[in-house]
Structures are given as structure tokens and as C-alpha cells.
Amino acid sequence: MAIKLPIYMDYHATTPVDPRVVEAMLPYFTEHFGNAASRNHPFGWEAEEAVDKARKQIADLIGANAKEIVFTSGATESNNLAIKGVAEMYREKGNHIITAVTEHKAVIDTCKSLEKDGYRVTYLQVRKDGLIDLDELRSAITDKTILISIMTANNEIGVVQPIAEIGAIAKEKGVLFHTDAVQAAGKIPFNVNELKVDLASLTAHKIYGPKGVGALYVRRRNPRVLLAPQIDGGGHERGMRSGTLNVPGIVGFGKAAELCRLEMAQESERMKALVARLNKRLHDGLDEIYINGSTEHRLPHNLNISFAYVEGESLLMGINDVAVSSGSACTSASLEPSYVLKALGAGDDLAHSSIRFGLGRWSTEEEVDYVADKLIRVVTKLREMSPLYELAKEGVDLSTMQWEVH
Amino acid sequence: MAYSNKVIDHYENPRNVGSMPKEDPNVGTGLVGAPECGDVMKLQVKVNPDTGVIDDAKFKTFGCGSAIASSSLATEWLKGKTVDEALAIKNTDIVTELSLPPVKIHCSVLAEDAIKAAINDYKKKQSVAGKGASVVEPASLRS
Questions:
Q1: CATH code of the region A19-260
Q2: How far apart are alpha carbons B95 and B104 in whole angstroms?
Q3: What are the tens digits of pLDDT across the range A224-249?
Q4: Which of A249, A244, A349, A252 is nearest to A306 (CA)?
Q5: What is the residue range of B22's domain?
Q6: How does pLDDT run across B44-79, given as a tens digit for each residue?
Q7: Contacts with B, A 375-404, CB within 8 Å
Q8: Count of CB contacts below 8 A, A vs B?
Q9: Which of A287, A301, A310, B126 is deepest in the core (most CB within 10 A)?
């Protein structure tokens, strides 16, 4: 079968909507268009019923109660609501928040914004494998600590943090625990009670649902978590998030969550096999390539590799019929290499040389082979023109060379 | 980011990739940039000692497509120029020729620096050999 180009291998950025999800959504644009907050006619009741069903489908995916799901516009809003909502609500108890340097910007920048308002934030470093040190977490907690926010799985390197252990520490110390579970929920088992998570951010578009709809799990028992709303209005979502519900989006989110729950076991085995195939083929064809982040604690569909001596953007240019991401500075708006890869301490040059592969529901073995073979050709060609590769082959230690830094 | 056709052409068919012996007294080598910044360029010129004309130029670049194109173009331009003509090449000439966007101007600056570094290296070798020559300031130090 001929491969359809371009190939999409950037499923961490977003996913296509599953046709089964689209089908579930369609009637809610036209036929059942009601406002879920309209309490006095059947249009509203239908919409509310559909939202309740979706709430249950999402709750089931994460082992929660439907009443603990608060719908938002997406994970950025969920992270803002969780962190700012707790900070504001528990201000009398304390002003200290603990997070990690490798968190998504929606968490880091929210914390930075709170710092301007007098909150104190500890940004935990990560080890070489991308995981936080639990002893460091423990010793960072003070009697002023009100919240720990650590992501479940990282969006760049796919490493999965020890969430159950963090949850246990938070519980023991009486500190609330929020996790950005956007990349993990629906992909790996994630149960808020087993993990002792108090707040979890979710989004539909990473799990084959539509963009523009997300959720925040807010624990109702042991403890009952309170949040100061960040958007005021009609008092929707138990007063935590006002605004007319995006009913078709929510219906799609629910269906997407249900499909993930039912198909996760099978799908993750298929992902593992595809990632292993990609990794092996690349390692067979190239020397000096390095996997970034833990290989043990990792999402099944993620591979992040640095191709030493080759710059990421030029690599992407050579595989322009493949959609992937790079940690190279040249591919980011800020012209800074990936702060996540820098935090691993591997050296900025390896951050510049990295490619993130995100596989997904429609990835095939043929695509994996095509991408691997093309990369091998392009990396080989670029190394032929890389002065760093030449120096390394001459035996020069690049890390001790004096570079003229601009 | 959309690249100009010229950048794509240089990326896909880079001119004059390679290396010449660094020890050769007629070869000047410039190595500029740093791996942690994501750009390193090595540019070499081989000068005919009788005519002062650059007979050959080679490059190797670690960097984005625009960095590769800038250095590839530089080697094309260098061949057949005298050392003094080569020093007159400005980064803005490269920006214009390759239609580089503002975020890629540093690639052209690096290419100009590489040219100057290579020629300075050649001149240094010549002055050691007793011919005397002045050293030229790189583009990145001009304000």
C-alpha cells in the first residue's frame, strides 16, 4: 500500500478527531442545539442529559465521580483554574506552591504570575532521566505549602512521574496535589483515587476529541477541594467555571474518553511495538543517537531522540513530508532550545539536535519504516556536512573546546 | 517557517561541502559559532599565493537550513575573488540574495564572520611566513 504523505507523527501536539467521535457530536450542532443551562424546556434537558453522559464517560476514564468533573475550554484553562483557584482559596493557610522545571508553560507561567502576587514557588529540578527526586519534594514542603503541581507525563519527552508516590507524600503532609494529566489520561492507566490526586487537568484534543474543550477533575471527598472561580458569570459548573457549556465539544470529549478507556490496553501495546520498531531501526542505521528521558517510565507512544552533531531544524527541513517537533531553538518562537531538554542537563547541543516523535491511533508500521529510513539518510547527509561530526571523528572533545559564543 | 527557494536549493544541493588540510600555508580556516547556540560554521579558503585570488573554498556547517545556505552561498561567492574582495562581502548581501527573514539574520552574520575568520587565519599564516598583513574585525563586533 502506498504511504499517504505527509505523515503525521506529532500526536503530542494534537490528534485528529476520531470519526466515531465526530458522529457522536454532529446531532448536537443542529438537532439538539439546546443550552444545557435551560431548565424549562426539552431543548435544554436534552443538552443537559448529553453533558451528564459525557461527564460520566470522562469520570469513568479516571476513576472519578461525574460530579467531580468541571468543564473548561482546555487544559491551559484547567491548569490556571486549579493553581490560581487553590492559591486564592487557601491563601490564609499558606502561600507556597511546589512544581517542577519541566512542567508545561501553562503551569510554569501560572506559577510565575502568582509569584508577582506574593506567592512563593519552588521549581523542583529533575534528574537526568527527567523524573523528580521524591526526597527533594519532601524536603521542599513547609507548613506554608498549599499545593503541589506535578505533571503526570511530559509533553516533550513523555516521561511519567511517580504520581502515586507524590500523591502519598501530599496526602501525608496535608497538601493538595494537582497534576496536568493531559498527555497521560486516556493513554496509560490513570485513576485519581489510586494515585491520590486532588485535581487533574484534562483535554479532549489529545485523546482524539475536538479542540476547545477540557476538564478539571476536582476532588469532592477526602478532602473536599474548594476553588476560587477564575471566570465569573452565571454560576455554571457548581460555581467553579461560569460560561455556557460547549455541548457538542463536551459530547465529543465524552465519547473520546470512552473509546480511550475501552481501547487503551490494546492501543498501548500497539504503540509500544511501533515505538520499539522506530527506535530499533534508527539505532541500527545510525550511531551516536540518544533517547532523552527515562526509557522505563515513559508514555507508550513517545520517542524523543537527539541526533548528535546535527541541528534539529535542518533535520526537519530534510524530512519535510513528516510532521514531528524539534527541541531546536530555531523551531521555537523564543529562539531558545527546549527548556525541558536543558533541564535534563544533557547539554544545549543535544537539545538543538532533538526530535520528538508522537505516534498515535493511525500510525502504521509502513509509516514508521518510511520515517526511520528517511531520517537515517538525512542525518547521514547532514553529518557529512557537520564540522562537529568531523571534529568528533578526529578525536576532539567538543565539550572542552573554546567556542566563540555569540 | 517557509524558506525561500534559494535557501531550499542550497540546503538540498549544498555547494563546496568538504575540508582542506588546515596545515597548508595557503589555506585559511575559520570556525565560528558554538554548539550550544545551535550554529557552528567551518569555512576554508585556499589562496593562490602568486595572484592573491581564492582558488577554492569549502564549508561544513552545523545549523539550520538558513545557516547551511548562508555558508554554501559564501563559498560560491568566495571562489575567484581576491582576499580583499572577499573581505568586502557583507552579511546584508547574503540576506538579500537568500531572502532571509529577520530571525535568520544571525545566520548571515555568522557566515560573514566565518569568511573573515578564514581570511584572518590565512593572513596570519602569511605574516608568520614574513609577508605581513592586517587582521580584520568580524561582523559581530561591529556595532
A1: 3.40.640.10
A2: 8
A3: 999 999 999 999 999 999 999 999 99
A4: A349
A5: 5-126
A6: 999 999 999 999 999 999 999 999 999 999 999 999
A7: 384-390, 398, 403-404
A8: 89
A9: A310
